[in-house]
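FAQ

Q: What does a record look like?
A: Structure on top, sequence underneath. For example:
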């Protein structure tokens, strides 16, 4: 089973406020099931805020197929439905920190294309952070 899918079923509540700072007004990405604004995602990636305490799911990582994942749900620009990506701990952190390896980026890009989603529509895979070869341009500095 693919670790990457479009979520089309009803019952989505995209306008839920950020679980950490309670900012509202936008459909935030869901980090391990919780809506989280970009500022709080960045703080999390920098290790400046409470780390995630979330039980891993027994699915396979969309990139490396390793079992034990956290879901990352994101609303691509102009897309009707959000995309959910299952990622193992390492790839989850790499995505949040904008430092996916080139091969990992490519694997995600290919799978998104199969769903009809362009990586440019996904905030964390945006071309401001990765060049066309999938090299990370603006990684969040590691502490
Ligand atoms: Zn927030
Ligand atoms: Zn992985």
């Amino acid at each position: 089973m693919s670790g990457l899918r479009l979520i089309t079923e009803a019952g989505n509540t995209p306008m839920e406020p950020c679980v950490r700072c309670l900012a509202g007004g936008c459909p935030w990405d869901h980090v391990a099931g919780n809506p989280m604004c970009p500022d709080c995602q960045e703080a999390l990636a920098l290790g400046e805020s409470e780390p995630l305490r979330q039980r891993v799911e027994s699915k396979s990582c969309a990139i490396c197929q390793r079992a034990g994942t956290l879901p990352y749900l994101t609303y691509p620009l102009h897309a009707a439905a959000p995309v959910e990506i299952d990622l193992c701990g390492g790839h989850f952190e790499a995505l949040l920190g904008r430092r996916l390896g080139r091969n990992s980026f490519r694997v995600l890009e290919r799978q998104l294309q199969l769903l009809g989603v362009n990586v440019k529509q996904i905030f964390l895979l945006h071309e401001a952070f990765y060049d066309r070869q999938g090299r990370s341009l603006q990684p969040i500095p590691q502490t």
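Q: Is there anything notable about this one?
A: The beta strands are 4-6, 29-31, 34-36, 57-60, 67-74, 83-87.
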